[in-house]
Amino acid sequence: MFDMGAETMALPLEEKMKFEQGDEGQSCGYKKAGANAVDASGQLDTVEFLNISKDDVLAFPRIAHRTYPAPAAAAMITAVVPFVRNALDVNYTMLRVFNEKLGLPEGTLERLHDLGEYSGSEARVIRSPPMPGKTTADRATLGAHTDFGSLSFLHNRLGGLQVLPPGHTEWSYVKPIPGHAICNVGDALSVFSGGILQSNIHRVVPPPGAQSDFERWSLVFFTRPGNSQVLRALVEDSPLIAEAVKQRPEKNFETGSTAAEWFARRVKYQRINNRKGTETWAASRGTEHTPTVA
Hints:
The protein is of the alpha+beta class and 294 residues long.
C-alpha cells in the first residue's frame, strides 16, 4: 500500500487532479495539498492523500463510486483488496468487543456497519512533505479534528501525530511503534455509545527533530456506519448507554443526521473553496470536546 501511494503521489499533479474528490462532500478520490483548511483562520493544510472507498474495493472490478489513478487500479488485487479486507476483519473484531462491553444486543454495532450497505468506509494513503527546521508553532500539517466515523486504524513510520485528551491543555505526541497500529474512536461510535467511548482530538504537526527532514507517509483505514444509519445514542438497547446519556444532559446525542450527511458535511466545509469565514470551519466540526482547538 505504501508503494502504491508513492507511485500515485509521484504522478504529475495534472494527472492526479483527474481523480480529485471535489467540493461537494465526496471523500473518495485525490486531495491535493492546500485544498483544506486546518483551522478557523483558513490556514491551508500541507498534505496530499488518496482515499479509496471500501465500496469500490469490494465491488472491484465493478465501479461503485468512481475510478482511481493507474497505480491504485493496478495494485487493487495485489495490495488494496487484501489491505481493506484485513482492516475490516480487525475493525469488526473491535466492534464486537465494544458491542459486548456496552451491553448491546449481539450484532447491534455490526448491523449499523452492514457491509452490504454503501458507507464512507475507506482506505487512505497520505504524504506529508519534508519540513526541515519547522516547529509545531509554525503550522499544523493536518488540523485538529476528531475522526468522522467509528474506528480508524493508522499505520505510520514517523512522528508528528499528537492528541489532546479531555481535561488536558497541552498536546502529546503519539510515538509510532514498528508492527503496531494506532486506533482512534470516531464521532459515530462516540454518539452511539452516549459518550462512553470518546472521539479523541488529534492533529499532525512537523515530525520532531531529524525526522522532519523526511517525507512522512501514513496509511489509514476508516470504518464508518452504513450511509442510512442515524447517529444517535443507543439508549433503547443498553441500560449502560441510557445511564451515560442521563448523566450528561448538556450533550446532544440526537444528531438528527445520517452517517452520510454527517460525513459529507464535515468533508465539505473543510474544503477551502467552500470557505466563507470562521463559520465554515465551525460547520466542519464533529464531537470535539474543545471545538476551537487548532
